[in-house]
Amino acid sequence: MDEVYSYFGMRKLSIENGQILLNNRQLYQRLILDQGYWPESGMTPPSLAALEKDLEKISAMGYNGLRKHQKIEDERFLYLCDEKGILVWAEMPSTYVFTDVAMKQFTAEWLEIVKQHYNHPAVITWVPFNESWGIKGINEHIRPQHFTEGIYHLTKAFDSNRPVITNDGWEHTISDILTLHDYEETGLAFAKRYSDHQDFAPFGYSNKEKIVTNKIQFNDGWFAFAKGFEYKGQPIMISEFGGIAFTVNTEGQWGYGNQVKNETEFMKRFEKIYAAIQSNPYIAGFCYTQLTDVEQEVNGLLTADRNNKVDLQKVREINERRLNFSEMKVENNF
């Protein structure tokens, strides 16, 4: 006789007063960006053990979730996340151009993905678009704006329980979470940009209001919202940051900011950027770039073949600390 085993999970996601709640408790998301590449097999996981190893290291570093970037991952991966209690943002790979054909194919495939992932309790957020890729001109043009609005509402029609982020990073139209990508390399500059605290008055503080109302650009020239759309009190997350280039070989390698050459240099910058985010009371969480090196990108916490580049326990300690800006000194902590 054949036997089939299954499982189920129950949880509630909600948004109240600018915060994301899991089972009615505030959820501070500590995510890591994961592209899911392996040197020996590309985008195909080489084994179930390889998937488990990635998740074990993510947990060991103190992250409570991940954003699977530009990839629909192996179903076994989501099973493991369900089992281990690791939160997942499910993100659609972007189209290359914005055309009628692209819209038709995108819509059909995206709804299949939502249907496929719907019953995984680990999946807590839908991300159909990223950084205006495949929806060029969304800041000003009505057709890509309408398209993202349509995908938002279609997703909500299929799944009213999970938040939807229509254009992760910038130029949002309708989104349940306002997510911002910012690869500023110094903690002090990061803190100045986002802080509302009076200690930053000499630098021109109260930037939250200016950013969310499109009065100023952030991250080298991007607006938070596309024209015609406005902030409505959504939770705010920094959903890409860091990306510190860390390698001893500079030829053909790439990362964000000035490259560091050793773990000491890396951890100093890493800790100060984290401090700028963790001490900010209105930021509801973050996603660090990234888990592993990928091809020419050398900004992972692990090498492409999953060797540690940094002390995982140190990363965990930074991830799990709680900072209060009023107890910090600007010149020392950032």
UniProtKB/TrEMBL annotation:
GO BP annotation list:
carbohydrate metabolic process
MF GO annotations: hydrolase activity, hydrolyzing O-glycosyl compounds
Glycoside hydrolase family 2 catalytic domain residues: 14-318
Q: Which parts form a coiled-coil structure per UniProt?
A: none
Xref: InterPro entries: GH, GH2_Domain-Containing, Glyco_hydro_2_cat
Which Pfam family name is an example for this entry?
Glyco_hydro_2_C
* Name of protein: Glycoside hydrolase family 2 catalytic domain-containing protein
Organism for this UniProt entry: Enterococcus dispar ATCC 51266
